[in-house]
Amino acid sequence: MSIRRLSLALLLSLPGLHAQVAKPTLHEALMAARADRAGDPGVAGAFHRLADAYGTPLYVYDQGHILGQVAALKSAFAPRFSKLRILYALKANTNPAVIGLLRSQGLGAEVVSRGEIETALRVGYAGGDIMFTSSSKGPEEIRRAIQLGSVLNVDSLDELGLVQAEARRQKKQARISFRINPGVDPHTIHQINTGIAESKFGLHLQGGIAFKAYEKALTMPEIRIEGAHCHIGSQITETDGYLLTARKMLGLVKDLKDKLGIKLGFVDLGGGLGIPYQDGQAVMSPEDLAKALEPVWKEGVAAAGYEPTLWLEPGRFFVGGSGFLVIRVNTVKETPLKTFVNVDAGFNTLMRPAMYQAYHRVRVIGKTQDPVKVDIAGDVCETGDILAEGRLLPRAQSGDLLVILDAGAYGFSMASEYNARPLPAELMVNGDAVRVIRKRGRISELFRNTTTAPATRK
Ligand SMILES: *Cc1c(COP(=O)(O)O)cnc(C)c1O
User: Fold this and answer.
1) Best mutation site among 231, 268, 275, 413 for ligand 1, i.e. most ligand atoms within 8 A of its Cβ?
2) Most exposed residue of 32, 113, 311, 458, measured as fewest CB within 10 angstroms of its CB?
C-alpha cells in the first residue's frame, strides 16, 4: 500500500475525522456546525445542498435534538416525581410538525391564543389536553376553551367573572387554574422576566390576592378548580428562582387546603428552562433542576398533606437548540468604524437579537481562514437590524452561507413579513432525511386579504 493510500485508510478509520472525508448526513452536518466545524468541506457541502434545494433564509430543525431534549427532561424528572405531567409551550415553535413530534412523546399542549388552540387540535390534541394561558383572553377565546373542556389558566378576578358567565351560558363547568405571580426574580432578561411583582402576569401571592381568588372561585358552581400555575420567566439558567417559587406555590397549596379545604390536582411550575447560546456556556441541566427541586417539593407536599401532580411546560428547552437558520451573504462592506456582512435575513426572520439583545452563535460555512471582526447586518431598513455584533469570524464574501445556531425557539414563530419579505421555509431533518414542513412564503401571499379598490361612497 502506498503511503498516500495508507494515510487515507487511517484517516477514514478515525471517527473524528471521518466526517471530513466521507459525506456527512444532514444531522451530522448540523451537529458539526454547532461544534464549530462549519468550515469542513463535507459539512459545507451539506449546507450548500440544503440552501440550493430550498433557498435562504431557511430554518432547519433537527428531530434527533428535539427528541433528545424530551428524553433528558423525562429521565431527570420521572424517577423523582411520581406524579408528573409535561406540556409543550407551543409559542416557542408553532410549526405543526414540531408540535406533532412533541405530542408523539406524550406531552400536553400549553397555548396562549385561539390560533394556538386550533393548531393544537389540528395536530391531534383533544380539548382536554390543552392548557390555555393568557393575561388577556378575548370572549371568543374563553368561549372556545370552555366548549373544548380545556383548562383556562385565569389571570385576574375580572377574567374569573367572564369565565363564570360564559360557563353558565354554555351550561358547563369551566376547568380552571389561576396563574400566580409569586414575586420571584429568576435573573433573566427584563422582557422575559414574568414572575416579578411589577410584571403584568398573574394574581399576586402578595397581599393574599391569589388566595382570595380561590376563595371566590369556590363559591361559583360553574367553576371547577383544578390547579395553580406560575411561569417566572424564560431562558432561566440557575435553579434558585424555581426553588423559591416552588416553596411559595406549595405554601399556597397548604393554605388552600387548611383554610378552604381545596385540594389541587396540579401545580404547574411553568417553563423557562434555559439553553446555552454561547460556546462553553454553563446552564442548569434538567438533572440539576430535578435534583434541587426534589427535597423542596417533598417537604412542601408533606406539609400540605397531599401531593398534587407536578406540571412543567417548557418551550425553548425542547426546540431552541434544534434550530439552524441558514442565510446567505449579499454583500460585505467596510466602513471607517466597522465591517458589515449584509445577509438575506433580518429581524423579520429572527427577532431575538433586535428585541432582547439576544446572542446567537454564527458560523461561516466552508471558511476557516482570515478571521475578521464583523457585524452581521440584516436586510431590514432599520438601524437596529443587527443579527450579531462584533464577532470574530472567518472572512466571508458575497454568496457565502452563514448559519445562526439555536434558532429553533422564538425564531420562525416571531417572524413577520415586515419590509414585504415573504416568510422563510422550514425543514425537519431526521438523519439524512429531510422534509419541508413549511413551504417558503410567496410574493403573492403578501397581498392576500387586501384590495387596492378605494372606499367609494354610495
Ligand atoms: C412562553 C411560556 C412558556 C414557555 O417558556 P420557555 O421559556 O420557552 O420555556 C411556558 N409557559 C407560559 C405561560 C409561557 O408564556
Assistant:
1) 231
2) 458
